[in-house]
Amino acid sequence: MNFDFSDDQQAIKRTAKDLLADRFKFERVRELAEAGSYDDDAWKELRELGWPGIFIEERYGGQGLGVVELVILMEELGYALAPVPFLSNAAAGLMIQAAGSEEQKQRWLPGIASGELRAAAGLVRGDEAKLVPDADEADVIVLCGAEGRRVVERSAADVETVATMDSTRRYARVRANGAGDALEGDHRPGMSGAVLAAAAELTGVAQRAMEMAVQYARDRKQFGRPIGAYQAVSHSCAQMLLETEGARSATYWGAWTADAEPETLELAASMAKAYASDAGWRVCSSSLQVHGGIGFTWEHNLHFFLKRAKVDALLWGSASEHRERVADLSAVGVAAGAPA
Amino acid sequence: MDLTLSPSEAAFRDELRAWLAEHHPGEDPPGDDEAFEHRRDWQRKLFEAGYAGFSWPKEYGGRGATLIEQALFGEEMARAKAPQPVNVLGMVMGGPVVITHGTDEQKDRWLRAILTGEEIWCQGFSEPESGSDLASLKTKAVKSNGEWLVTGQKVWTTYAHKAKWCMLVARTDQDVPKHQGLTYFIMDMEQEEVQVRPLHQITKEPEFNELFIEEARIPDENLVGGVGNGWAVAITTLMNERAGLGAAAAAGVRIGLEELKQLAHERGADEDPVIRQRLAQLTIEVELLRLNSWRGLTQIMKRGVPGPEGSLPKWQWGEINQALTELAVDVLGEEGAYWDSPWTYRLLRSRANSIEGGTTEILKNIIAERVLGLPKLR
Ligand SMILES: Cc1cc2nc3c(=O)[nH]c(=O)nc-3n(C[C@H](O)[C@H](O)[C@H](O)COP(=O)(O)OP(=O)(O)OC[C@H]3O[C@@H](n4cnc5c(N)ncnc54)[C@H](O)[C@@H]3O)c2cc1C
């Protein structure tokens, strides 16, 4: 029993944190968000470091590491709110790696792993996926729904950019209209991986919003003392820690099951997404409250995190939907056996 | 990262599981005294099998178990629904304090009888006017002719009516700042000068008591850790109370959750979408309690100190147990009102979970100040 990263994984985390902190000073993030664009140079750099293919098997040009390494990067990307098309690309890669035929994998994975191709993934309801990150500039889009899974080239699909509250990322609505190829394999491990990547991002977002609140609570003085000395404020910060650490534990555990205990993966992924979706929003909202009026201004950086948290919460299944899945998978509604 | 048990951990767990299956003492018999003696017998059995004081060093009758083994022990006890050994305060707090701060004579005198359950221990910290602000306590001890005379009042003293020994913190110096004037004693409860009056809890159980102490005598050799060091010694006790309990607590609520799911199924409530959401949320939180505890243990083993997540389980556990029992009573509907419903006791007992062993507000203060580094309100 050892619930901690290996030395290599620690090194990945440290490197990612330092690199992202250096490349994405918040003024830069803000500038790109206002312009609605990404940092192409940084994306190129991350590609050269092999990030997009971190979890993709070596024979398809990836680094052959696991979902644990993926969530390590995702958490740091969320913390930095890095404006790069990483999440969408990874989600599509996970789906194709899980459910694609050999031919499909050979066709798409090497490009996704190197970042030469851009891929996106969306959840279809009815005949449309309403919230697909980065679909507008993707080469290929994976669509996953009750009726089946398809991989379609963007040129063959209807892709309509949508403005969301989260200006740090681009989103679109997508209809396949029957185009593309079916993904015939079991897509669930891929979907679970994508959901965990989103949960990891939410964890990073929550961590940052909490740190901002704690710092502000130390610095800001009212009634002659730092506001962090008032328990209404300090207990709210303690609650942020509880929820952020919970999201983190759930995400790491889920990632570990992806690599080591696949029979638990779906349950763990839904637990993580349900919890992190609520936690991300609540931590950001409480952080806003701690900041008072300044937290409500466009000028302050917090709102970018708040909005990302909300959109991530809605992406690839809401907290309620994932909780319903948890109820299903953890045998609510069947006679319970003895716990293992 | 490896969240599976190592072969030796798994072997340990299997051995323990088999032992528990064979020796499980069954449910407590009715009647508070009968239940108490039943648990004393149970403790004796645990002792004979080498499972009492399991984390204590070998030379004091323990097994020198690792933190992981301790956590597994707690999990397996909960899983088997085995009762708490009767001398839990002695094992979790008294013994470790004597081991850490006691003299050799003190160790010889006390440790074995704690483990066998022959001598029950209670904890005399809280007073009517000093709860969360423990260091403000007023019970005073004065030295006279080589022994100490203690006068004051204690309250909420669990098992005082059964106890032979009391871990007592008293003020020995009025003239220094409040944390520095305290001393830690082991007081013999079998004396006229200590009057125990039962207090009934909201569950009606007389589990805790008031102590009226009027010039009770404590020989000098029963002082632990030196005059004026009572605060530091008391803190060890509190730390011991919290360390490693997370995993056992998680296992306990996990059993409760399974029972709740079963209940919801029998009552058809598991079709109700709102109940399903609440059940799923609890399922997630129970899992998180387990995960945070294991993460905390890993940090302690690697770095010697708990990480930030280590301070969370006691708080989390209280909230989960309270939410779980509330949901069970909602599922029962009108029958949830009945006094003899098994969930009534649990609903009521769980109200103490956010008070006993440090209130949730105090835990949040600790997290805010020590983990997040926020300023103190003072
Ligand atoms: C079932 C049970 C068993 C117990 N067993 C024992 C035992 O064996 N031995 C023993 O010594 N004690 C025991 N206790 C006592 C327990 O440790 C105290 O009840 C607890 O520490 C709180 O103290 P108090 O009751 O005086 O409440 P108070 O300290 O008066 O607190 C009242 C309320 O004020 C809040 N509060 C107090 N200070 C602050 C602050 N600084 N910031 C924010 N909020 C604050 C508290 O959180 C609480 O909500 C037991 C209690 C229970 C319920």
Please write out the topology.
The complex is a heterodimer of chains A (340) and B (378).
Chain A: H1 7-23, H2 26-35, H3 40-48, H4 67-80, H5 86-99, H6 102-114, E1 119-125, E2 128-133, E3 140-145, E4 148-153, E5 158-162, E6 171-175, E7 181-182, H7 188-219, E8 221-222, E9 225-226, H8 231-260, H9 265-291, H10 302-314, H11 319-329
Parallel strand pairs in A: 1-3
Antiparallel strand pairs in A: 1-2, 2-6, 3-4, 4-7, 5-6, 8-9
Helix pairs in contact in A: 1-4, 4-7, 4-8, 5-6, 5-7, 7-8, 7-9, 7-10, 8-9, 9-10, 9-11
Chain B: H1 7-23, H2 32-48, H3 67-79, H4 88-101, H5 104-116, E1 121-124, E2 140-144, E3 147-155, E4 165-171, E5 182-188, E6 194-199, E7 208-219, E8 223-224, H6 230-242, H7 245-266, H8 273-303, H9 313-332, H10 342-349, H11 360-371
Helix pairs in contact in B: 1-3, 3-7, 4-5, 4-6, 7-8, 7-9, 8-9, 9-10
Flavin-adenine dinucleotide binds next to β1 and α11 of chain B.
At a glance:
With 340 residues, chain A is α+β, with helices and mostly antiparallel strands. Chain A has helices spanning 7-23, 26-35, 40-48, 67-80, 86-99, 102-114, 188-219, 231-260, 265-291, 302-314, 319-329; strands at 119-125, 128-133, 140-145, 148-153, 158-162, 171-175, 181-182, 221-222, 225-226.
Task: Characterize the structure shown.
The complex is a heterodimer of chains A (340) and B (378). With 340 residues, chain A is α+β, with helices and mostly antiparallel strands. Chain A folds into 2 domains: 7-182, Butyryl-Coa Dehydrogenase, subunit A, domain 1 (Orthogonal Bundle), CATH 1.10.540; 188-335, Butyryl-CoA Dehydrogenase, subunit A, domain 3. Chain A is 56% helix and 12% strand. Chain A has 11 helices and 9 strands. In chain A, the strands form 2 sheets. A 7-stranded mixed β-sheet of chain A has the order 5-6-2-1-3-4-7. In chain A, strands 8-9 form a two-stranded antiparallel ribbon. In chain A, strand 5 (158-162) and strand 6 form a beta hairpin. In chain A, helix 8 packs antiparallel against helix 9 (265-291). Mean pLDDT of chain A is 95; it is low at 335-340. By secondary structure, chain B is an alpha+beta fold. Chain B folds into 3 domains: 7-86, Acyl-CoA dehydrogenase/oxidase, N-terminal domain (Butyryl-Coa Dehydrogenase, subunit A, domain 1, Orthogonal Bundle); 121-228, Butyryl-CoA Dehydrogenase, subunit A, domain 2, CATH 2.40.110.10; 245-371, Butyryl-CoA Dehydrogenase, subunit A, domain 3 (Up-down Bundle). Chain B is 48% helix and 14% strand. Chain B has helices spanning 7-23, 32-48, 67-79, 88-101, 104-116, 230-242, 245-266, 273-303, 313-332, 342-349, 360-371, and strands at residues 121-124, 140-144, 147-155, 165-171, 182-188, 194-199, 208-219, 223-224. In chain B, strands 1-4-5-8 form a 4-stranded mixed β-sheet. Chain B is globular and about 70 Å long. Chain B starts with 6 loop residues before the first helix and ends in a 7-residue tail after the last helix. The interface between A and B is large, with 52 and 56 residues. Bound molecules: flavin-adenine dinucleotide. Residues 122-126, 131-132, 156-158, 208, 352, 355-356, 358-359, 361-362, 365 of chain B line the site of flavin-adenine dinucleotide (FAD).
